[in-house]
Specification:
Blueprint (H helix, E strand, L loop, with lengths): L9 E7 L1 E2 L11 E2 L6 H17 L3 H5 L3 E8 L7 H14 L2 E11 L3 H4 L2 H6 L4 E7 L3 H6 L6 H13 L5 E7 L6 H13 L4 E6 L7 H4 L7 H17 L3 E4 L2 E3 L6 H7 L3 E5 L4 E6 L4 E7 L3 H5 L6 E6 L2 H12 L6 E2 H8 L7 H9 L9 E2 L3 H5 L1 H6 L5
Parallel strand pairs: 1-4, 1-11, 2-3, 4-5, 5-6, 6-7, 7-8
Antiparallel strand pairs: 8-10, 9-10, 12-13, 13-14, 15-16
Helix pairs in contact: 1-3, 8-10
């Protein structure tokens, strides 16, 4: 089946890599801000990066397609001033078309300085805010190395709402060092009281190359983690939040369009230090991935190539990558989406789907790819069935 531009949405991810301080659990490409923020130079580097992509062999695949969503991630994007983001958004709109219902998300820190900017961000057309609260307990925030306290976090949500944001995600973690089930559920309850439209609620994991990985804090036992997860999910469900992805919960029609595009194997262009891209070349029928240099200093250097590496996604990898993403969605995806987004015939999946259904990990609907409740619980086992070879 041919890959067609009108069947594959295109999103834009922009990585702003600086933070006030690096948190001990964070494995993202983020860097503590030790000097002044080079926001003007970085905005120009981002636009130059976009220009390079539009001059590349993929220019026809990029320049003729409207943007489905924009996501400012980090780092702490809210360190950038509204004036800098205005210059950036205006530059992007001169180069790419915006869909009428474009979702623009900004990740923000609850810190007081950033709160003062929320109304200005909303005036720029940024219509979705993602606030990294992580916890609403001061003792846990201190352990996590966060620079805000619980009252600052609560005030940030209210300030964003007063500033015109109707679509707000809050990030909360459970399974924190020495956290009890009651404390985890108390965080969820306090989060619900803030009346946000979306929750990213996920378990703390100790990732390599983090302080927590090398100096492991005492974490709750598996039995407690399971109770936190199941009772927290029930509490969110009782308050009208749909559990639509592994760690994402939303009110009706408030799912994150940008992340849905990832999980449905859409295309995305990544700008910024360490940003990743997945782009379909409709002329060659290839799917390409590339990622930018990680060090902000290298990214800012106009004499250096911003692209670190490019890879072609093989047919075997397309199968695995599609399923790895799509099966994170609790409702799954229609089978025809596999053909539309990979260019492969559905028959290629038949023996793999048969095995997954025999193991009780996929539902029996022949036209739908959806994990069963057991498949959701053992998602790693399910996706491993689609590994190449």
């Amino acid at each position: 089946m041919p890959l067609l531009a009108h069947t594959i949405p295109l999103s834009l991810y922009i990585h702003l890599p600086w933070c006030i301080r690096k948190c001990p659990y964070c494995d993202f490409n983020s860097h503590a801000l030790k000097e002044g923020l080079p926001e003007a130079a970085y905005v120009q580097a981002l636009l130059a990066d976009l220009d390079e992509n539009l001059r590349s062999p993929l220019q026809d695949s990029l320049g003729q397609r409207p943007l489905h969503s924009i996501f400012f991630g980090g780092g702490t994007p809210s360190l950038f001033s509204p004036q800098a983001l205005e210059t950036l958004l205006e530059g992007i709109q001169k180069r790419l078309r915006f869909e009428p219902a474009l979702e623009i998300t900004l990740e923000a820190n609850p810190g007081t300085v950033e709160q003062e900017r929320f109304k200005a961000y909303r005036a720029l057309g940024i219509n979705r805010l993602s606030l990294g609260l992580q916890s609403l307990q001061d003792s846990k925030l201190k352990i996590l190395g966060r620079i805000h306290d619980s009252q600052t976090a609560i005030r940030a949500v209210k300030t964003a709402q007063d500033g015109g944001f109707e679509n707000i995600n809050i990030d909360l973690m459970y399974g924190l060092p020495q956290q009890s089930k009651e404390e985890a559920l108390h965080d969820v309850a306090k989060g619900l009281a803030l009346q946000s439209t979306h929750f990213s609620w996920y378990q703390l994991t100790l990732e390599p190359n983090t302080v927590f990985y090398h100096t492991r804090p005492p974490l709750p036992p598996d039995e407690t983690l399971w109770d936190m997860q199941t009772e927290g999910q029930a509490l969110l469900r009782a308050h009208g939040f749909n559990h639509y992805e592994v760690s994402a919960y939303s009110q009706s029609n408030r799912e994150c369009k940008h992340n849905l595009n990832y999980w449905q194997f859409g295309d995305y262009l990544g700008l910024g230090a360490g940003a990743h891209s997945k782009i379909t070349d409709f002329q060659t029928q290839e799917i390409l991935r590339h990622w930018q240099v990680k060090n902000p200093r290298d990214y800012l250097d106009p004499k250096k190539n911003k692209v670190a590496e490019t890879q072609r996604v093989t047919s075997e990898d397309r199968v695995f990558e599609f399923m790895l993403n799509a099966l994170r969605l609790t409702a799954g995806v229609p089978l025809f989406l596999f053909e539309n987004r990979t260019g492969l015939d559905r028959e290629r999946l038949d023996p793999l789907l048969r095995r997954a259904r025999e193991k009780g990990l996929l539902t029996q609907d022949p036209e739908w790819l959806q994990p069963t409740e057991r498949g959701q619980q053992f998602l790693n086992n399910l996706t491993e069935l689609f590994l190449p070879g």
